[in-house]
Amino acid sequence: MFELLFILLPIAAAYGYYMGRHSIGNKKQDDKHHKNISYLSGVDYLLDDDKSKAVDKFIDYLSDADPSFENSLALANLFRKRGEVDKAINLHSALLKNTNLDVSEHEISNLELARDFISAGLLDRAESILQSLVDIPRMRKDAAMLLINLYEQERDFNKAIEVALAYRDCLGSMALMRLGHYYCEVAEQELAQGEYKKAQSLFLHAIDVDENSVRARLGLAKLAIKNKNIQEAMTFITKITSISDNYALLCLDLLKSCYPNLADPNLRQAIESLVRRTKSAQAMSFYIQLIEQDPNNDADLILFSFLKENPNLKLFSSYMALQVKGDDSKANEAILQLKSLVDAQISRNYNYACHNCGFKSKILFWQCPSCRRWDSMRTIKGLDGD
Hints:
With 386 residues, the chain is mainly alpha-helical. The chain is built from 19 helices and 3 strands. A 3-stranded antiparallel sheet has the order 2-1-3, with no helix packed on it. A hairpin with a 5-residue loop joins strand 1 and strand 2 (360-361). The longest helix has 46 residues, at 2-47. It is elongated, with a radius of gyration of 33 Å. It starts with a helix and ends in a 7-residue tail after the last strand.
């Protein structure tokens, strides 16, 4: 009996060792399978445009992955994306305490921590980190851009200008476009305080850094009108419409300010030129009002021809107004009733939409209130627009 036990013991030990190894192997395979499933599920959700669930799945995957620098960094950034900024701060802070990080990894961790602080609204702490990074050559561009974003968020446009000018060599054309807006923001602050000369100088600086700055030219045109320098204002307005037809509504208002007398032939000529350059429905409707003053006008023919090429509710409303003629009261009443319905629809329509996020507004914002993108608002064209 004892001899049998001695024979079976090595067999039992070998079996136990095999089963243990098999169990460990299975666990590793199960863990690997779980991580792969989480990763693939994240990809599926991302492809299905379910970003929230995709982030959750990627977090699951990275939480189970090896705690390498890259995985820890990615996990922290996903936490920030999901709004769990405290977790992102803790992870990035833990990375900074890791003595095994090399210099570049330490710098990257600091930059990401600054992003966390900005997301959390801790702008002073973010500013301190970024100021220590901005003069490191390999960190300069990212740190400078974040500093500009931070000062923009604080609406300290003078500091934003200072940083943008100091690092303009590495920031690119998009940052220079934003710099033009910062000059305009400061110029409008000066205008509010009656400092017209300072405002004019700032608008000119905006054009120096962004030669296609429409906003600066609109500001200069308004100053020229205020100073009764109509010819100078017209030069700015013409330049604006040559840059883009997106600002016809603003130019229309400026032209009305240039020539307040509706009988002024210069106004009629300027509006006709604006219509020709921009195809604006609202400008065309106003032009029709002007030529109606001429007893021998051909407003019907002009408007109908324009309407055929540019179907638009504003133009249709103007055309119906022209049809209210003669003594046929019933026909006139029907036309006016239909016109009132069209006008009600027009009053509900928006004038501008952000091409980045789709935000719509009746007035033009230079920075979209929704996605915070500069110069992203565009005039809505077509049947319901201009």
